[in-house]
Amino acid sequence: MAYPENGTPNMVARQGYAAGFNQGQADVSRGQAFRPTENKAYAHAKIPKGMDKDQFKTEFRESFVKGYTNAYKGQ
Questions:
Q1: CB atoms within 10 A of CB 65
Q2: Is 56 exposed, middle or buried (0-12, 13-18, 19+ CB in 10 A)?
Q3: Cα(39)–Cα(22) distance, rounded to whole angstroms?
Q4: CA of 19: how far to CAs of 58, 69, in Å?
Q5: Which of 49, 43, 41 has its CA nearest to residue 20?
Q6: Is the distance from CB of 57 to CB of 65 less than 8 angstroms?
Q7: pLDDT tens, residue by residue, 5-42
Q8: Secondary structure of the chain: what % helix, strand, coil (to 5)?
Q9: What stretches of the chain show up as alpha helix (H) in DSSP?
Q10: What does the alpha-carbon distance between residue 60 and residue 41 come to, in Å, rounded to a whole number?
């Protein structure tokens, strides 16, 4: 799995991308439909202590969808 580098992404973005990429690959291998936002990891990611909940969700989810999309489309 390769994270597309645009500068140095933060840890939340890396985690979201990795989780999305892994889930996208799993869904492709199982013949599942493209549904990145209907995934448990997308909806219930663990928020690190001391981090703003809304900021975390936004960054994680945006990166999750990017990773999922790249894996699903074979990029």
A1: 18
A2: middle
A3: 12
A4: 14, 11
A5: 41
A6: no
A7: 554 458 899 999 999 999 999 999 999 999 999 999 99
A8: 55, 0, 45
A9: 11-29, 40-43, 53-72
A10: 10
